[in-house]
Design a protein that fits this description.
The structure is a homodimer.
Chain A lengths: L5 E8 L7 H17 L4 E3 L17 H16 L5 E14 L5 E11 L2 E2 L10 E2 L11 H4 L3 H7 L4 H4 L3 E3 L2 E7 L12 H7 L4 E6 L7 H16 L3 E5 L1 E5 L3 E6 L3 E3 L5 E4 L6 E8 L18 H19 L4 E4 L4 H13 L5 E5 L7 H14 L2 E4 L3 H11 L3 E4 L5 E3 L4 H23 L3 E2 L5 H6 L20 H15 L7 H5 L24 H10 L7 H9 L3 H5 L5 H4 L3 H16 L1 H7 L4 E3 L20 H11 L9
Parallel strand pairs in A: 1-2, 2-3, 8-9, 9-10, 12-22, 16-17, 16-21, 17-18
Antiparallel strand pairs in A: 1-15, 3-4, 4-5, 4-6, 7-8, 10-13, 11-12, 13-14, 19-20
Helix pairs in contact in A: 1-2, 8-9, 8-14, 9-14, 11-12, 17-22
């Protein structure tokens, strides 16, 4: 604490590169040096600032752990004249984790005068995360021993170990991320630390962006600060980290709450940023500065997250040129516009791949879009190659070589549709992308991914699915946002918004005759959303109960009347089972091989919402409800 | 206990269908009735016998939990005249899990005379799993509150809750799966239960098959039984369960240990089985029966697991016809032979898809194999379609529609190779499989998957990759086993074993000139294995240390001399970095979209070995070692 009774503190909202401790440490040390030069008392970095956080099973490499420990030491040696707070992994080779590997902690280090200092009465010179999240994308207990398990091992209560850190600046109540989200745990770390005399609370996090999460955090953190009457620092990283199937963005949005719980200083979202604040610790000045109003998330937050995540994912993959297949529909149009914000026109190639089933309407829309975006464009028809494939396979006679078995192959309408989709994806787009020196995109949305309304190795292909966490209606909304607020004038042709959504793979999907996909928007969007995103997830059992009670529209938030689209109970049930069968059946198989999804909301497919391939399933209660409703006792269709 | 002082006990090694509580319950109740009819005192089912175990986030559906509870009640009502022990989920709606959802326990139920009985002094009428595994494929803390957390919540010690169940048959010391694998935990449930007077120990498990795991279990369980001087029942399910990317087989292998730790009764592996044993509980008879010798796993165990897993996965997917692309190489030959053991010849279609680069040698081998297997066979050349694709793309001029930008595309040699692979996978095989009314297989092995030596949407495609947990040398071994011990006479032509492994996608891979893949077997197999399967996983840092110390051959178990294949340090390092760059780079991107892998060993790719896409990385210590070795300080190639 300086003479004026305040701490000159700098929040370092850095970009953390997952799995790259030495790069991160180089960056951290540079920022420490400049903080010293600027006369700061303290600089605070995010959780897991050295190793990164979502790095799969990288924690099992002994060499990776040694590298992290070496980096921790380098940072310690850089702490002359300043208090450095940073998150990293801590290793204790004298103990084991429950998987039998070496003991690892998700730790918060305090380095002062080239020494690490830990909490009072602690076993280690670092703070150990007490609450380990094991939900959504988090697997913390897989790799780290939390403070509760350590306490159990020591036959003590976890509260015994929740002590402030006796820094030269005063007693600091420091915790990691989840430790502040304590509502559902048996212990509240911040309450303990406050009770034990912490003068300032610090929460270092590595917390991915999720639509509407910041509003919830605002409420929780503000309440912590005001309840305990202590200022609270929230320090989060930016960047992207992934778990293979799912890519998460980190928005930073670090901030400071005064002792009355008002947010008085904040870093911008999705930008590296250093925020310097003088935190008065005298009880006489519980508040300072002007509160910063918080704005709830909206479509512009989603847009920002997708642009940021896509740009960073490209960088991670070493991608600088992108090829987008454009059909004239809203999904590919939105994807093309997103990439045009990231790439110069000569590095973006839009490709239209018409067959006999593509109407002049959509072909013109695709061309219009390409014209407005000013980037490279080409047309590669798939008509001849599809015809060739059909001629090679339809009617082909397979035999056993002893002549005993014979079978003539024939292709159904659905098989012919899938041939077209794969011709576009795996034959044309993949080869064009490689000739272009780049990658191609997956343009699928969450509605299609939910029920597998797409072809494997066809439109379920590409290096990244960056709008696959958005329901179709959200894609439209993003498209409108792009037209009104991103580009100077509308780039997505109006026709893309009014067109009947259609795969255009057969005569039956002729958009000019108003025919198209079997998914009915927005009703099915809302139905699928209830299965995937609602907290206690909804199944056909609840849907049927609500339908029978006449409250389904209200429950789903559907503005129209379901009877207008599905006039009878039989039609309603048949539709429900059709999509549920796909959602739990073929769609799971497709998602297993789908491209990585850029997550922006709750329960993105992949590693956030985990699933097993088990086939469609109905509860006994569902079958009873259905029997009551229809007088039938079996699912209408079994698969 | 009956008059003779023994318990007539039946072990029900059932197949558990994941996510299907009512089907499992129907099966369980049938077996209870027949056990009653047979005069049994007790029948014991596996862990999670009602809901299944590896079922992703299915636990979040409220309707699924209600269904399980209803099934638990049905089983309770069927327990008149017998003690029924079964694993299921238990729900307490008055408490929360740490994710904020309803409290769930991985529970073991004891039903007697239509009542549930729990441990002495317990909070619930069921046993709660104390040790929750969070490694490999297990995510137990994601969904279940373990006994340790409950004890902490109740501010008691976990030992306070570890009490035997006071059954009418005596004090039973019952635990779930991991509770017996206690070496790395702070508490030993079986030791507690034994101390507290349990006369018989029961371990109900849902434990997937892993090569060599049964030998380890044998040691651990036998030691438990002899140390505590109590008989021990081990009851495990059979079947398959998956977590999307990875499919696990469950082998059952349930058995009984006497009070001296001798295995005296055992169920067969991978078969539903009921085992009835009279367990004497008088201290005077600590042992009975004849010990059953245990046989260590070998290639026949792997064969059995793959056949079982493949057959069950087909059933799960509703697959009854399969198409295998055969090249004449060992991988596709082995896969074809495996399917021929499951399918009648008219339901198996082998397809050879030659291009100009396929030698008469491999084409003949493929044909020979098809002849020996007697199933359907066809040849579909890819020459014309590949030529057409190249003509459409190579030289294509892309322009912006305002005429300002122009670029002519051209295809590299590698791009042309990938076009061939995708033509086979996504164009031919996918369409033929659908015309055949079936699926097509992925024939990749673990070596290729590790370094991504395969083409996305080409050979990285198919409904299941059933040999993708085997290194190339293990595939050869499996092939030899198939030839010598599975079929009556060798079905895989000898040439498949002696042929240079080659993708045959260019002149440079001409097998008749002894040219082929860049992977050098068995050295690279052993190198990749050290990165993937070794316990504290090995990275280039250790490899270089061992190389410099002249101990790499010993460390990897390589019989030859590495200097014979990589004569200089520079060549060695270049090779090491080439493969490491692929392993951590492109191969991760390929694995994200790869088909589900059938796991048979430790650390199958997917959900067992989890990974993030982060690009190739080297530690500082590696770079220092390399500098010392070569005098250079940068990786030879950066990506």
């Amino acid at each position: 604490m300086n003479a004026s009774g305040s701490i000159r503190c700098r929040i370092a909202q850095i970009e953390v590169l997952p799995g790259r401790p030495s790069e991160n440490t180089g960056h951290i040390i540079k920022l420490i040096r400049s903080a010293v030069a600027d006369g700061m008392d303290m600089i605070v970095f995010p959780e897991m600032a050295v190793p990164g956080y979502l790095i799969g099973d990288e924690w099992e490499y002994a060499s990776f752990l040694r590298e992290c420990e070496r980096c921790n030491e380098e940072i310690r040696r850089a702490s002359a004249g300043i208090t450095v707070v940073f998150g990293s992994v801590a290793v204790d080779r004298s103990r084991k984790n429950e998987d039998g590997r070496v003991r690892k902690y998700n730790a918060l280090f305090f380095a002062e005068n080239e020494r690490f200092i830990g909490p009072r009465n602690g076993l280690y010179p670092f703070v150990i995360k007490a609450l380990a999240p094991n939900y959504r994308e988090f697997d913390e207990s897989r790799h780290f021993c939390d403070l509760r398990k350590l306490a159990m091992e020591e036959r003590k209560s976890v509260a015994d170990f929740l002590e402030p850190v006796p820094s030269r600046l005063g007693l600091l109540g420091a915790v990691l991320c989840e430790d502040a989200w304590d509502a559902d745990y048996a212990v509240s770390p911040l309450a303990e630390l406050s009770k034990k005399g912490a003068v300032l609370m610090i929460n270092c996090s590595s917390s991915p962006f999720t639509l509407d999460k910041n509003s919830k955090r605002e409420r929780i953190y503000s309440t912590h600060a005001s309840r305990y009457g202590k200022p609270l620092l929230y320090v989060n990283n930016i960047g992207i980290q992934n778990n293979g199937k799912t890519v998460f963005t980190f928005d930073g949005s670090s901030c400071v709450y005064d002792a009355r719980g008002r947010r008085v200083a904040a870093c911008p979202a999705f930008e590296e940023s250093e925020l310097s604040v003088d935190i008065p610790l005298e009880p006489a000045s519980p508040t300072w500065g002007r509160p910063i109003p918080s704005r709830p998330d909206d479509i512009s937050s989603v847009y920002k997250a997708i642009i940021f995540g896509t740009e960073r994912f490209m960088k991670l993959c070493g991608v600088s040129r992108v090829c987008v297949g454009i059909s004239g529909g809203i999904d590919s149009s939105v994807v093309a516009c997103l990439y045009r914000r990231i790439l110069a026109p000569e590095n973006l190639l839009l490709l239209n791949m018409p067959s006999r089933y593509n109407s002049p309407t959509t072909r013109t829309l695709a061309r219009d879009l390409a014209e407005r975006l000013g980037c490279l464009y080409a047309e590669i028809p798939i008509e001849d190659s599809v015809r060739f494939t059909i001629s090679q396979i339809d009617g082909l006679c397979c035999k056993s070589l002893d002549g005993r078995l014979k079978e003539k192959l024939s292709l159904t309408v659905l098989a012919r549709e899938n041939i077209q989709a794969r011709d576009r994806g795996a034959r044309v787009l993949a080869a064009v992308a490689s000739a272009f020196g780049g990658v191609f995109t997956c343009n699928g949305n969450k509605s299609e991914l939910a029920v597998g309304y797409a072809t494997m190795y066809g439109d379920v292909a590409g290096y990244l699915a960056n709008i696959a966490d958005l329901w179709k209606m959200e894609v439209y909304e993003l498209g409108r946002h792009i037209n009104t607020s991103v580009y100077e004038e509308p780039v997505i042709p109006q026709g893309c918004f009014t067109l009947t959504p259609s795969a255009e793979l057969s005569e039956a999907q002729n958009v000019d005759e108003g025919k198209g996909d079997p998914i009915i928007y927005p009703y099915h969007d809302l139905l699928f959303k209830s299965w995937v995103e609602s907290w206690d997830r909804v199944s056909p059992e609840e849907i049927l109960e609500w339908y029978a009670a006449g409250e389904l529209e209200t429950r789903l938030g559907y503005k129209g009347s379901i009877a207008d689209i599905l006039p009878t109970s039989a039609a309603f049930v048949a539709d429900l089972e059709r999509w549920w069968n796909l959602y739990q059946g073929m769609a799971v198989a497709k998602r297993i091989q789908a491209p990585p999804v850029l997550a922006v909301k709750r329960r993105a497919f992949g590693f956030d919402k985990r699933e097993s391939l088990m086939g469609p399933r109905y509860t006994m209660r569902y079958l009873e409800l259905k029997k009551k409703l229809l007088g039938a006792d079996k699912p209408v269709s079994s698969r």
